[in-house]
Amino acid sequence: MKEHPIGIFDSGLGGLTVLKALRKALPHEHFIYFGDSANVPYGAKSKQTVTKLSCAIAAFLQEQGVKLIVVACNTASAQALPTLQKQCRVPVLGVIEPGAQKAVAMTRNHKIALLGTEGTVRSRAYEKAISRLSKKEKVFPQAAPLFVPLVEENFARQPATRLIAQHYAATLLRKKIDTVILGCTHYPVLKPLLAEIFGPSVHLVDPSDTLAAQVKSYLSTFHQARAIGKGSVRFYVSDDPTRFKRLAQQVLRAPITRVYLKKLSV
Ligand code: DGL
């Protein structure tokens, strides 16, 4: 299995922020990235729909022979992870647990804000994960549904995005939070702007590097890590590979040779 790729999926482009962290931690591994561009956004969909889409993607990734699946999408991790872990033949890791761990380690005043999609906020998955780790923390959730289309449209540096971010941050700042979980794969793209708005005394938690460390430790514990050679990524999307390629190159700041189309059968 060592030579097999790692599967990673997201509703669209956002999971590229997780892919970046994984490639940095695991430079010898091959990856298959699936972006469900036909069905993005997941954030406003029901748990049932998100689970059905996630299972279809996981089935495709397993057909490609992946040794492990990373659910980069917070919304899918929050709503579909237990079903995926039950149904898949390979291990499945999500982003919620690593995000919760990092936030609990970072906070000093035990007031943690969660920025996420409506689905992630509604699931209360972060609150549950945090309370399994510590009973002291108070979590203040804030759905930020407009961030996803702004990132997908490459609007990260536009004044409109700043105004919207200030609106979402206002209530949280009044609660005197000292830590903010970026509970959606798209939000790290807005990190410089959010860092400015929340100010230097607030930690911004991107779960992706903690997740990457977990994947690394999992692979080495089970002797599944590829220790030498250059890693690679193969990209699949469920709609419009050309558009994905253009935007993904901007997020990754690196060229992509090819993006393959794979329509999901759901
Ligand atoms: N990638 C998803 C997540 O991390 C958010 C985007 C969406 O709503 O599809 O929650």
Walk me through the topology.
Elements: E1 6-10, H1 16-25, E2 30-35, H2 47-63, E3 68-71, H3 74-87, E4 92-94, H4 96-106, E5 111-116, H5 118-123, H6 125-133, E6 138-143, H7 147-152, H8 159-174, E7 179-183, H9 191-198, E8 203-205, H10 208-221, E9 232-237, H11 241-252, E10 259-261
Parallel strand pairs: 1-2, 1-3, 2-9, 3-4, 5-6, 5-7, 7-8, 9-10
Helix pairs in contact: 1-10, 2-3, 4-6, 4-10, 8-9
The structure holds D-glutamic acid.
D-glutamic acid is lined by residues 10-12, 14, 40-43, 73-75, 117, 120, 148, 184-186.
Overall description:
The chain is of the alpha/beta class and 266 residues long. It has two domains: 6-94 and 209-261, Rossmann fold (3-Layer(aba) Sandwich); 96-207, Rossmann fold (3-Layer(aba) Sandwich), CATH 3.40.50. It is built from eleven helices and ten strands. It has a six-stranded parallel β-sheet, with helices on both faces. Helix 1 (16-25) links the parallel strand 1 and strand 2 (30-35). Helix 1 crosses helix 10 and helix 2 crosses helix 3. The two termini are 28 Å apart. D-glutamic acid is lined by residues 10-12, 14, 40-43, 73-75, 117, 120, 148, 184-186.
Nearest-integer average pLDDT = 95
Q: How much of the residues is beta strand, in percent? A: 15-25%
Bound molecules: D-glutamic acid
- Which structural class do you get from the secondary structure elements? alpha/beta
Q: Unreliable runs, pLDDT <50, ≥5 residues?
A: none
What top-tier CATH class of the largest domain fits best?
A: Alpha Beta
Helix content: 40-55%
Shape: globular
Count the E strands.
10
* Number of discrete helical segments: 11
Count of discrete domains? 2
Major β-sheet annotation: 6 strands, parallel
Radius of gyration: 17 Å
Q: What is the end-to-end distance?
A: 28 Å
Main sheet: strand order: 4-3-1-2-9-10
State the order of secondary-structure elements, H for helix, E for strand: EHEHEHEHEHHEHHEHEHEHE
Second rung of CATH, namely the architecture of the largest domain: 3-Layer(aba) Sandwich
What name is given to the CATH topology of the largest domain?
A: Rossmann fold
